[in-house]
Structure formats: C-alpha cells, structure tokens
Specification:
2 domains; Rossmann fold; five-stranded parallel sheet; 11 helices; alpha/beta
C-alpha cells in the first residue's frame, strides 16, 4: 500500500448473495492490504447485498456502500463526471466492459486499476496479462497491482456477541461437530440427500455429531433427516431468521464440513475449517470456495457431469481425511 491510498473506490456491476459470498475473500484481502484506507463499494448497475443482507459480514471491512448508482452503462456518461464533487486516491474496477471502464476513469482519482481490454486503461499491469479461471483469483490480481505486492492475508471477519452466544446455544461446547450442507441454489447442484444421510451415519458411528445446515428452500428435507438421524442437529431450523453471520459462527464450531457448490459452502469456507466441496455441472476452477484446507471432488472424475456420479466412498474418505 502507498501512503497516498487513503480512499479507495471499488466498482462492481451488482452483487447477489452468491456473488457477495464469492467476493468476500477479496474484500478481506483488500482490507488487509489497505488497513487504514476508507473503502467505498459502488454497485453501478444494480443492487449489492453488501448494502443490506451481507452488510454485517463486511462491517469494518467496507466503510461505505453506494448502492444502485446507475453509473457505467450509457455512452452519454462520458460527457460528464460521475460522482461529482468526490475523488479517490485509488479506483479498482472489477468488471471488464470497456465502455464502463472509460466512464469510471471520468471519476476524479489518483490511480486506476482495471483488467478491461487486457489492462489497456490500467495504471498498473501484470508482466504477463493472464485471466485466472477463478473469479476470486481475478480479483486478487487487482489487489496485487494496486498494492505492488502479492495479496497476502485476510482481515478477520467481524463477530457479533449476540450471534456468537446464539451459536454456542445451538452447538454447545463439548461434542465434535461435523457439518453437512446438502442444499444448493438448484437441485442439479445437489449430491443426493440419501448419501448425505449415509455420511451422517458414519459420523455418528465415530462418536461425532452430524450437523445439517438447511436453507429455507430445503426445510422439506427435515422429516427425512430426523427419521434417519434423531441425533443429528438442524440448528438453522431453530432460529426465526438465520443469517450468513450465524452460519459462519456455527461453522467455526465444527471440526470439518462437506457442501455442494453453494452459498453455504462459501460461508463454511469463511469459517476457516476444513471443507470437502462437491461439484458436478458447475466448474470448480471458477466457483470453488476459498477454504484454508479444501478438498474438491468432481463428477467428471467419476465418468459424468451430474452430481449422482460422485460415489459415496471417496466422499467419505475425503471427509475422514479432513477430520484427521
């Protein structure tokens, strides 16, 4: 970080919940690289969940969110200066559309970092312009260019005392908890529920407690899970309004977890625990969570692209390795 980078503007098009969770390691690395800067997050073409749903997760990491700014779409914006009256020491443009980048450069700034057009309009460029497959790796490249050194470390996530107390109530200290997140944004990304249940039986047999993390769209699975595993815990179904911060807090109390390609998987990664991540129709190179210790199993490695192609035994082996 340079001493002049006291104010930073990060531009995104928009952030749905999944986008925000994928970008969370970038936000944490940016704060670690620029600990004293005032960071403004601007969603130019839509809504950012950092303005509401995920705001508690970025408290202290992002200082300001400009939501639905309506900046970066129209040619006519080149004739005026966006965000009049404001200036930033550093602008980080996370998108690649050249028109949007040209518009953003009209904002008063000291330095400008953007991968658009092969870093054509950026004040700093990598020696060999490349485009990593992983979205978060692409974003980390921007931090490295802005700071002049590799992005290293992540600022800690904020913790809320009430949420931590609730997590302790739901998962009291003592037992060894193992997380199972069988859901995803679409059923095509879900490993069969009965295989998660079989895995829960293995966990119980080894003296540990299986913890199922179900989203609102997956509550219909509760009956089947409770019928087979009365000892299993379903903590998110015991609270009126589950949150990402609570899910992460629960994850911190687990020895390890397994998840599909899902938002819950990214939350468990943020908890800093060993994670087994299952992928079928979606590419892990692009969407893998940023877990400190991650094992990925792909359906393609077992002769197909659908989730049911992933056999039970390698998943069990991967989870047991993570627990050890």
């Amino acid at each position: 970080m340079t001493s002049l980078d006291n104010s930073i503007l990060v531009y995104v098009g928009l952030d749905a919940v999944g986008d925000g969770l994928i970008k969370l390691p970038f936000v944490r690395a940016l704060r670690a690289a620029f600990p004293q800067a005032r960071i403004t997050w601007m969603a130019g073409k839509g809504h950012s969940v950092f303005a509401d749903t995920l705001a508690p997760l970025v408290h202290g990491l992002i200082d300001e969110v400009i939501d639905e700014a309506h900046i970066g779409s129209r040619v006519g914006e080149l004739l005026r200066r966006p965000l009049p009256g404001r200036s930033f020491d550093l602008i980080i443009d996370t998108q690649r559309r050249l028109l949007t980048t040209l518009i953003l450069r009209r904002i008063r700034h000291g330095r400008f970092i953007s991968a658009a057009g092969g870093f054509l309009l950026s004040d700093a460029r990598p020696r060999v312009p490349t485009r990593p497959a992983a979205m978060v790796a692409q974003l980390m490249t921007l931090i490295e260019l802005a700071g002049g050194e590799p992005a290293a470390g992540e600022a800690p996530l904020p913790r809320d005392a009430a949420t931590e107390a609730l997590a302790d109530t739901l998962l009291p200290p003592g037992p060894d908890y193992v997380g199972l997140a069988p859901g995803a944004g679409g059923k095509h990304k879900c490993w069969p529920l009965e295989r998660f249940c079989a895995l829960a039986a293995t966990i119980s047999a080894k003296g540990m407690t299986p913890v199922f993390l179900l989203g609102p769209a997956e509550t219909e699975w509760m009956t089947a899970i409770r019928a087979e595993h009365p000892d299993a815990l379903l903590p998110l179904q015991q609270v009126e309004r589950p949150s990402a911060m609570l899910t992460i807090a629960l994850g911190r109390r687990m020895r390890a977890a397994i998840a599909n390609d899902s938002g819950t998987g990214h939350m468990l990664a943020a908890a800093g625990i060993p994670l087994v991540s299952l992928f079928g129709p979606t590419p892990p190179d692009k969407f893998a969570p940023s877990a400190s210790r991650l094992t990925i199993l792909r359906a393609q490695d077992f002769g197909g692209s659908t989730m049911e192609k992933i056999p039970a035994s390698p998943v069990e082996e991967a989870l047991l390795r993570s627990l050890s």
